[in-house]
Amino acid sequence: MAILLQAKDRLLSRLKSLTKIQRFNHTLEPQMCREMCSDSFNQEVDVSNWKTVDSRNLGITRAMIPQPSWVVLKILKSQGFQAYLVGGCVRDLLLRRVPKDFDVITTANLKQIRRQFHRSEIIGRRFPICRVHIKGSVIEVSSFETVAKHGEGKETVLLSQIPYGCDEIDLVRWRNSIHRDFTINSLFFDPFLNKIYDYANGISDLRCLKLRTLIPAYLSFTEDCARILRGLRIAARLGLSFCKDIDTAMHSLSSSIERLDKSRIMMELNYMLSYGAAESSICLLRRYNLLKILLPFHAAYLDQQAGKITAENPMMLMRLFFNLDKLVSCDRPADYTLWVGLLSFHQALVSDPQDAFVVWVFASVLYHGKWKEGVKFARDRAKEPVKFVPEISGFSEIESDEQLAVKVTELALSVQDCVNDLTKASSGYVFVSKKIERNVQQIFDVLVNSIESYNSGKRSHIIDYDMLGKGNLVETRFVLGKIILKTISGGLVAGEEEIDEEEMPEVLDKDSVENYLAKKNRKRGLQPSSAELKLKTAKKCKWTEKFSSINHELSMNKEDVVPKEEVEEIHKAVKNCQLPDKELKVRTTEKHKWIENSCHFDQELSINEELVQKEGSQQLGEETQKAAKTCQSPEEEIKVNPEKILEKKDRHSLSTEGTNKKRDKQKRADDKKKNGLLLSSLFKEK
């Protein structure tokens, strides 16, 4: 009987084990990866790979940290917590790029973080963080404790990696780093000590421009499939290459992104397409079969056009995103409405090819913000054929504005229909919400309702990036029209001859960059920059040197008054100056300006400014200038050199340095009276 009971128990245990195997059969492959990962974890950690680098040797200082992030770091530090910059901002600073944001991590828990700041809230479920609102910015602050709690199930694996005798804070940072997505995002920067902590050879991978995961890529992407999109975004923006492990895992797990929430998909795509790397991101999405899931219509278009690309016939979709990348970047991003509008516009052209002139007017009205100006610009510029197939059907200039308005309205309605298609399941994985659909359709409402009376109210051709990032409709229409015009024209659009940024200098030294920025600000009507002020100061220094040399020469000469013979020469020159009355007035005005400018520099920069301000010297200087002004011609040299007149004035001011001051002063007073009488009689005769 006992034998039968034992056999029964064995049978039941086998049935239970078979049931478990069948129940978890679909997770067998990830489980195998975890076992493989555990085997790799059980290996001893090489502490020699841990690096602590002086950030100043890599060109990173605390001055590069924006004020809001620096305030958060200082407050946490003052309360006794350790605080670091972590992730992408450290990576971008090492690559001399502008970080998208500056994330902070601290040893304080989330509740302690929230108590330090008046305006803060904790968000997120799986990986909660604290968002701090400070000085108009939002800083995301995470806690080491959050990652530690999330990794509690792996503690038995991680304990085998703990090196003997390591520092406690080193252990905290290291445990956090191994839970991150990529090695280049696992760097910590302590701005108080100017130290960068690297536990996974992240700096070495950055030097090699290589993207690598901290654990096997298949396991990393299985745990969080959003890392696939994040890896593509980082590689597209920084020009990184994938290791073989990541390449294989991305091909195998590309379909897993359908499990993501559509808001997360929208966020990742917005990071790809609104921050200056749209063209390369589209290429990588297509390479790993993700474009077929997210944007099947455009994926099919690219597959169809792949064999037809030539220099004469480029793909219009890629040219649109190429011109978008030239206008936006990480420090001046666009809103999602811009790239969704571009995708819808292109889909409308592929579905129903349009006449090139209609596209010209469509884009020009969006750009200029007025119907009449847009049509006039299109009629003046739309001369050369547009070579985009199948989007453009031909070119025929429509004479009637009424017919043209109907055509443009039909195109706008077609674009709005394509926006609606993005919210339907037939278009593939739906990630565009109804709210986004309404916001994008509003861009084209002005071309549907009362197009001929449209007036945006925008007064300049300069992009307001603050309003563009907030999704302002007027600014989004303007930039959308500019991108389309650049695409179909291949050149400048209206107003760009004055406001377009010139090429950055090839040698990026401090002076050349400051001069470039100075010219750009001057064109945009901004206040003078430091470079402009330096330029003006340099010009003033030249004037100072010039007049200082003159004064030095004059100081060696003890003659202090204008000789009578030279006054008679001036008198003769005035008599011989025979000019028509009108011409004389014009030229006299020009000479007056010249004399005023000379006196302006002389008064500001002369080393003898106090002496020049004396009453007698001023009177003599003004009268001699008037005498020179009446005989000067813009086409011929002045018969009496103005420099001589200035020399006499300066000579008069410097003569006080003689040994016998009383005698010289009396002599100057007498001579001043004589010369005053001579000059007054001279002007009366004139």
Question: How would the blueprint of this fold be written?
Answer:
Layout: H1 2-23, H2 28-41, E1 51-54, H3 67-78, E2 83-86, H4 88-94, E3 104-106, H5 110-116, E4 120-123, E5 129-134, E6 137-143, H6 144-150, H7 155-158, H8 168-177, E7 188-190, E8 195-198, H9 202-207, E9 210-211, H10 217-223, H11 226-238, E10 241-242, H12 244-253, H13 262-273, H14 278-287, H15 291-294, H16 296-305, H17 316-325, H18 336-351, E11 354-355, H19 356-368, H20 371-381, E12 392-394, H21 401-421, H22 434-444, H23 465-469, H24 473-489, H25 496-499, H26 510-523, H27 530-555, H28 564-576, H29 581-605, H30 609-612, H31 615-631, H32 642-654, H33 661-685
Parallel strand pairs: 3-6, 9-10, 11-12
Antiparallel strand pairs: 1-8, 2-3, 2-7, 4-5, 5-6, 7-8
Structure notes:
The chain has 686 residues and is an alpha/beta fold. Among the domains are: 51-205 and 313-490, Beta Polymerase, domain 2; 209-294, Orthogonal Bundle (Hydrophobic Seed Protein). The chain is built from 33 helices and twelve strands. The strands form three sheets. The chain has an eight-stranded mixed beta sheet. α19 (356-368) crosses α21 (401-421). The N and C termini lie far apart (147 Å).
